[in-house]
Amino acid sequence: MTVTDLSKKPLLLLDHVTMQFGGLLAVDDFTNEIREGELVGLIGPNGAGKTTVFNVITGIYTPTKGRIVFNGIDITGLRPYQITHLGIARTFQNIRLFSDMTVLENVLVAQHHVLSNPDADRILVKHGKPKKGHGRFWFWRAVTKIGYLKKEKEMVEKAKDLIKRVGLEKVMYEKASSLPYGEQRKLEIARALATEPKLILLDEPAAGMNPKETEDLMEFIKQIRKDFNLTVLLIEHDMKVVMGICERIIVMDYGRIIAEGTPKEIQNDPRVIEAYLGREWESV
Length: 284
Ligand SMILES: Nc1ncnc2c1ncn2[C@@H]1O[C@H](COP(=O)(O)OP(=O)(O)OP(=O)(O)O)[C@@H](O)[C@H]1O
Hints:
Keywords: ATP-binding, Nucleotide-binding, Transport. By secondary structure, the chain is α/β, with parallel strands linked by helices. The protein has 2 domains: about 10-85 and about 195-280, P-loop containing nucleotide triphosphate hydrolases (Rossmann fold, 3-Layer(aba) Sandwich); about 105-170. The protein has helices at about 50-55, 80-85, 105-110, 115-125, 135-145, 145-165, 180-195, 210-225, 240-245, 265, 270-280; strands spanning about 10-20, 25-35, 40-45, 65-70, 75, 90, 200-205, 230-235, 250-255, 255-260. A hairpin with a 2-residue loop joins strand 9 and strand 10. Helix 3 (about 105-110) packs antiparallel against helix 4 and helix 3 crosses helix 6. Mean pLDDT is about 85; it is low at about 130-135.
């Protein structure tokens, strides 16, 4: 049974997507449509192909076969930065932050793509650490000082506002590496939000979290979906999270979709229990 709300506008279509690595079909004829505002879970045993689905959506890999359409645009084969521009952001299984930078600097770096590069570089040099290759900085700063100052102010205000909205204002000037794990995850999600996505892909956001952090994360994901008008696709092994917040769940095994439905339907599906939930569900 499908649980897709057909009154919602289609946002992402994976149309017979296949990703082959040599003789291995990591993703095999994957077809699914995600509609605006949905919160969808992607689950399955280790090696089922879940992260590869994220990698083809975000342009890390070009699918061997099939087509990916986002918001009416065929994005198959586009570069990752082009896909980010169109409104897809992601987080990774292992947290990826600039550990020596503050929370604010981390968000500013993520906003980088919104501005033309010279502007973004200059703002980063001032609010973050100077990088190599910024010799043009002083020249451009003199030439475009007024526009730059305006843009800088806007960018910093925007970053601060985002940090407040995700509840990290108390640690805005702390180094990312000094934050507790749950806050590092939030910061990673905030960095994804800084690119102003329509769709966010979260790869195992609850990995390594304690039960309290996991509870907070579940609320956080529901809250940001509402506050930022997001569509969310989530890979997660923690069944409490998946069953607790997803409206629809897609189950993969050996690269293929083996089931799709509401949390209740998935929990009672014999194919899913056999391939996956039998093991995972016992631990919930
Ligand atoms: N770049 C690559 N080259 C070769 N094989 C790959 C590559 N990326 C993934 N694979 C293989 O594709 C299969 C699917 O991997 P993938 O990481 O997508 O699974 P997953 O469902 O995300 O697993 P997990 O839950 O453990 O993260 C695995 O067998 C993996 O070894």
